[in-house]
Amino acid sequence: MIFAELEYPEHYSDFHDELVEFIQLTFPDIQYGHQGDSWIWITDSKEKVEIDTFTSMKHQIKSAHDGNLVQKVMATLSAKYKLRVYETPELE
User: Are 66 and 3 within 8 A, CB to CB?
Assistant: First the structure.
């Protein structure tokens, strides 16, 4: 499910490295890549949050369910970046 989308003026390719660096400050267990699309996976125990551009030209915050990790990721990102949080999570 898609919980939110980041809002920023530049192309997602130009924003990828900054976003990865910021996420690494708070979340120690991440994987990421940038090959055509930008993707970041954050894992904590059994939870996983994906931040990617697979279905949008901006980074979207996705998770299989609403849990502590997705809420922590959104809170962390919203402290620095503007998020458009969906009232009801959307199916991908």
Answer: yes
Listed in sequence order, the residues at least 6 apart from 34 whose beta carbon sits closer than 8 Å to its beta carbon are 13, 16
- pLDDT at residue 60 above 90? yes
E strand intervals along the chain: 2-7, 30-35, 37-44, 47-52, 60-63, 82-90
All structural domains of the chain with their residue ranges: 2-90
> Average of pLDDT values for 35-40?
94
Q: How confident is the model at residue 52 (pLDDT cuts 50, 70, 90)?
A: very high
